[in-house]
Amino acid sequence: MGMTTDVTIQPFTGTYAVQPAFSTIAFAVSHSGAFRFRGVFADVDGALRAADGDLALSGAARVASLSVQEPAALRAHLLAPDFFDAERHPLITFRSTAVRLADDRSAEVEGDLTIRGVTRRLRAWGEWSAPRDAGYGEVAGLELRTQVDRRAFGIEWQTPMPSGEDTLGWRVDLEFDLSLMRVDAAADGAP
What we know:
This protein is mainly beta. The chain has a single domain, classed as Lipid/polyisoprenoid-binding, YceI-like (Lipocalin). It contains 1 helix and 12 strands, in the order βββββββαβββββ. It has an 8-stranded antiparallel beta barrel.
C-alpha cells in the first residue's frame, strides 16, 4: 500500500471538525475462520487542522458507542476487560504525526493510536475529498484503512474451536470514514 503519486498537495485551510452524525470508526476481524465479525463506533469527534502548510488529524471514539449485529451479551463482552475495557478506558484516540495528500486524491496518514491505554504507531491509507461548499457549510471527507494486530494493544482473548484453530483472528482491519466541516471560516474571512 502507498500513495500512487509523489505530488503532495495541501488543499485545506483552517480547521475542519469531524461530523459525528456522518462519521464512523469501524473494525472487522475473522471469526471462526468462516466470516468477518464487524463493529462500529458511532460516537466520534475530532478535527483536521491546517497550519503553516501542514495538516494534523486528531480524534477520539467513545468505546461505549460500540454497535454490533450480535446479541447484547456479545457487545457486553467486547466492552469488558477481555477486549476494550470501556470502564477503565472509555476512549480510543488518534493523533497524527504526518498527513500526506496527493493530487490523485490518495491519502497517507501516520500517527499514534491509543486503545486500552496502549499507544502504537500506525500508518493508514485511503482517499480524501476536497473542501467544497455544500450550501450549509464547507465540507470535505477523509476515508482511511489500515490493519493492526490486536495483541499489540493488550487484546489477547482467544478460545479454540473444536478443530483446535483460534476462534478470533489476531489481525484487525480498521476503517475511518470521516465527514469534515469547516468550523473557522468566519474567523479568517473565508465563505
